[in-house]
Amino acid sequence: MRTSRPSRRSVLAGTAAAAALTTVPLPAGRATAVPAGQAYRWRTAVMGGTGFVTGVLFHPSVRGLAYARTDIGGAYRWDDSTRRWTPLTDHLGWDDWNLLGVEAMAVDPAHPNRLYLALGTYAQSWAGNGAVLRSDDRGATWARTDLTVKLGANEDGRGAGERLLVDPRDSDTLWLGTRHDGLLKSTDRGATWAPASGFPATPSASGQGVTLLVAAGRSLYAGWGDGDGTTANLFRTSDGRTWEAVPGRPSGTAAKVPIRAAYDRYTRHLYVTYANAPGPNGQSDGSVHKLCTLNGKWTEVTPVKPGGTTSDGSDDSFGYGGVAVDARRPGTLVVSTNNRWAAVDTVFRSTDGGRTWTSLKDTAVFDVSETPFLKWGADQPKFGWWIQALALDPYDSRHVLYGTGATIYGTRDLKHWAPRIRGLEETSVRQLISPPAGKAHLISGNGDIGVMYHESLTASPSGGMAANPVFGTATGLAQAAAKPAYVVRAGWGENGNGAYSNDGGQTWAPFEAQPALAQDAPGPIATNADGSVLLWSFVHWDGTPHPAQRSADNGATWAEVTSFPKGATPVADPVDPGTFYAFDTATGTLHASTDGGLTFTARATGLNSGDKEFQLAVAPGRSGDLWLSLKGNGLYRSTDGGATFTKVSSCRASYTLGFGRAARGASYPAVYMVGSTETITAVYRSDDEAGTWVRINDDRHQWGWIGAAVTGDPRVYGRVYVATNGRGVQYGEPA
């Protein structure tokens, strides 16, 4: 997955020096002067996961307690009494957007209420440093330590083993493996960190560093991902001070990168999965080995060797991912394949220490009725892909969970599987529409899962991913203002990149034809007020803009619009079918068309240029009433169709803007904004045309970066929908 965003905080020196200490109890908001807020109740529109679950961890000492981590959507705690996941990191705000990716998590078997998270989505120069959160109440409240190193929860290797570990000999001692700064150690329960002395591996700027940390008895093991298949990639310590390479380890490309490890305390064997790349992508070889910690003997126990061919002649290449041992039955364990596209990934189970294996996929019966999108437009769901998170309940030998690129599957009888995803939502949302009529109050355009029609906000859309064609990532979504039954969409798809709906988004049909550019550079799309004209802008995945194209016959034919600013987002006037608008951020110019998109001419010039994060919006039911969000440069308004703009003095910064039903007695729609009136970036509502604002989210509900889209509900006053980059659609209503 996913979207990467430039850093919104200064980048600190990425060395492994002792970390700065910053303790922050929840809620984690800043002490700033902001307008008095209105109490809102916030919930998540149910889609059902939709993102890469990179880790699942059962607590070894508490029945029914488990945690999950994701690459961009934070961490969760499983509530066994309600059968739901509870989000634990929604308090992280705009400036902390890079902390919504969870690199690793750890629990303390001796102190069941303690939980630790290592946060940091990107290890790139433009991203901020990582942080460690520590909790004494299972994630209800947190203390925080900001690190001086970077973590990479949404980079290669994100599905590898937990890189954070509580030392089993001393609950005050924690270990943290990093990608580029070696092994760190804390002796005060994560409050401060320093480089671990004696760790022999040398990190590289482009490597994986530590891929896993695991306790085996009183010894600790660390996997190392920077080797070439011949050098040491597994280290251990028995005293916490001196480390050594584990002798006799497997070598070769099939054992190049240790992915995950699990320890059987009955048989004293450490099981390790390997691959030739960190994954989740790019793995084509792998193996499984076990180490007898009593005598140092290694044994290969690989269920199926990668590299054969399937029945149709396809290359059956893959690596190995997750591994978990049964805490109740000696020699019983499960392992997963990863990146196995031809024969499809599976989970293998052994009851004899890996001598023989059974593929659980072969007898699996799936029920995805709770989250129909998991069929991906097919008749039946697949077992899954990107299976690196794998967990076995220490209190129930037949209770297995595994994460995929879209969900968590679970079984309690090793045969019947269903999503175990309630409460966990990880979608990166790009576009939002709240229709003025029809069954659905919400249509969303999303990363990875295309467009969803939400006939209910509390259940995953019954139609799943919008089919005909099925998109991966949506790039455009628009509704005809005077004909709301007509909706168009664009995105990345294997069988077409544009489609239309005549029933408000319930069912779709592909455009009869599409421009050649659509396959490699689908971008935003717009339809005019009566649905008679389409404008499709094209932007290559690398950001290269191309000329827009126009159709006046519902996508049967297309013609280039040379006067349209390349790469701009077309916006239709909600009243006049002949009028379109587009803002050219390269020159700071507002362009308009009055001939149905045939030609565009410049109107207002001299506006701020160069903002990659901007939005042009038109107030519903009002011709020429334009609002322009220009990131940190504020909010601007035009009431003459873009001929002139006036800066809105009540707003310091604006990132995205939308409209909803007007307040009682008000003649103008409610205006919703993600931005700031003074210093804090938050969600605001104005009932007086941006004369005054009231903050409507709170410090517990911030969701990191939320700059893609916001819209109010035209039928329900006060209801607002917020697009997040990893926490799905959040919707709020006055409490």
UniProtKB/TrEMBL annotation:
Name the Gene Ontology molecular function terms of this record: hydrolase activity, acting on glycosyl bonds
Task: Name the domain of life this protein comes from.
Answer: Bacteria
Matching InterPro entries: TAT_signal, WD40/YVTN_repeat-like_dom_sf, Xyloglucanase_GH74
Keywords, in A-Z order: Carbohydrate metabolism, Glycosidase, Hydrolase, Polysaccharide degradation, Signal
List the PROSITE patterns hit by this protein, alphabetically.
TAT
An example Gene Ontology biological process: polysaccharide catabolic process
Show the SUPFAM superfamilies listed in the entry.
Oligoxyloglucan reducing end-specific cellobiohydrolase
UniProt similarity note: Belongs to the glycosyl hydrolase 74 family.
Name-wise, this protein is 1,4-beta-glucanase
